[in-house]
Amino acid sequence: MTNRRVALASRPSGMIEDNNFQLINEEIRELDQGEILIQIEAISLDPAIRGWMNEGTTYIKGIEIGAVMRSFSAGKVIRSRNENFKEGDYVEGLLGAQTHAISDGKGLKVLDMSSGKLSYHLGVLGMPGMTAYFGLLRKGKPLKGDVVYVSGASGVVGSTVGQIAKIKGCTVIGSAGSDEKCKFLIENCGFDYAINYKKEELNKKLKEYAPDGIHIYYDNVGGETLDIALLNLAKGARVIICGAISQYNNMGNIQGPKNYMKIVTARGLMTGIIVFDYVEEWPNAVKEIAGWISDGKIKVKEHMVHGLDNYVAALKMLFTGENFGKLILIP
Amino acid sequence: MTNRRVALASRPSGMIEDNNFQLINEEIRELDQGEILIQIEAISLDPAIRGWMNEGTTYIKGIEIGAVMRSFSAGKVIRSRNENFKEGDYVEGLLGAQTHAISDGKGLKVLDMSSGKLSYHLGVLGMPGMTAYFGLLRKGKPLKGDVVYVSGASGVVGSTVGQIAKIKGCTVIGSAGSDEKCKFLIENCGFDYAINYKKEELNKKLKEYAPDGIHIYYDNVGGETLDIALLNLAKGARVIICGAISQYNNMGNIQGPKNYMKIVTARGLMTGIIVFDYVEEWPNAVKEIAGWISDGKIKVKEHMVHGLDNYVAALKMLFTGENFGKLILIP
After folding, report:
1. How far is residue B28's CA from residue B9's CA, in Å, rounded to a whole number?
2. What is the CATH number of domain B2-123+301-330?
3. B242-265: per-residue pLDDT in tens?
4. What's the confidence (pLDDT) of residue A57?
5. Can you name the CATH fold of A2-123+300-330?
């Protein structure tokens, strides 16, 4: 029986290149006592992967050269020598970009398949959904009537932030990179306004849609978008830094938010969200979001790519904005 | 009777120049009913003046061309046609850089001269002292044992922040631009550590003095110093933006804090202080600080410059770091 995996061949110094990765076939070894074998059915591709390809960061270790590309993946237990897992269980965790994974079970979550289909546990019910939920609710503290602006709005974090904000009675503005994505935000997700930042002037549109300013800016992109959002803060605004995808490939020359003094004049604050800080509260959040999905209050959009051969092409989509919805690789 | 005043002749586009200012002598007109005439004895020179020279900002109007340079000044009422003020009262407010001012009394504070000498009401008992007090206590929320780092530490805001932090049981690190200033911080103000940023490597020294990170960074300078502070945050750190003096003359090309993502990984937050938000609480804060001064817990350092002719040279000192202590112009 063979495992096929994507390994880190070399560290990129800017934008990822094909030669940073290598596809490897290898025989699957026997399980030791306490281990399980998982057949992976869905691999999550997230911007955070770019950070993990560096030597290391302050809060998480970098991927070692030759090791499987780190990813949150989900699949079925097909062999078990661990009493906490039985064959047929569905599990999710850092199982990597591969067809099969051997695990001692540590850090794995057994999935409640009644709360949503397998791939949802990598998106709206997984880390990105939790990032949206805890970032918006705990750090943004939305009040009814607040104006919430979210960038990268058609991604799973962004669309979940916007839809939860709508549930909380906010006015919601999203920005995304195509008319199709903007149409999805308005028609499917119930956003009040959507801005195609590639065609429309973001600052002008924000001033039009939020003449009294933005109370919560949920930042998924960084760069110029963050700077423009800072120009449009309402008094007491909360700026939540989630990602800085525009800066991830920008080694050693990060663009800081030059309008950061606007946080002062707006009597606002800038903070961030580290989703792992809330891990003990995830199960309750999963239940609440699953309820919203089944009530039709949260719509989910997925972008499926098939085959490990397409791993690099799929990963690049995250940085070009080509994907539309949560990017899932089916190995 | 003649008034001599410094007027704004033109708006600077970067660093201030002599030709942005003009000295004007003019006859003092008769008072209307409700007005008072003040003989100004002390003029405060503050970094905020540079901002007021621009066309206008989000929270305060720019100085008009030809108008007197805006300044907090203090002096004695020498004529009064306003029942709220009597001759001999000492008052403080936005009375400008001039020898005499006519005012309708709005926004003027009658000074309690028992709480400190006149110039103190422009410094440690005035706006800068209030900025230190409310910024540190309300935004920084110092806890006993916290490590507090303050830049621009030998200025009135910085030295007051550090000394209040010491009163609150914190470990205090300050940075300043000369050995003389650093000596003052340690020997007079009771700081635990002082860094001469012109001679020592700031990042290395912060790591040495705060090996477990900084809990509160009180930023008076912006630029590179802010970026280095962000590299040294402890978990849950509060970054308080007070000024960005290194950036005030840097029109249109503000350097944003490129390490802003460290706020996220540190689970910290960045916020600011607008001292006018606390104006109703100033009298109590003045009393508390005056008490600390008379108990010897807060030391005050002033830098007096004499003569309106020296206005521009004195103002420039703020941006070159040449002044040592609260800069006061005696007209």
Report:
1. 21
2. 3.90.180.10
3. 876 555 555 556 788 999 989 998
4. 60
5. Quinone Oxidoreductase; Chain A, domain 1 (3.90.180)
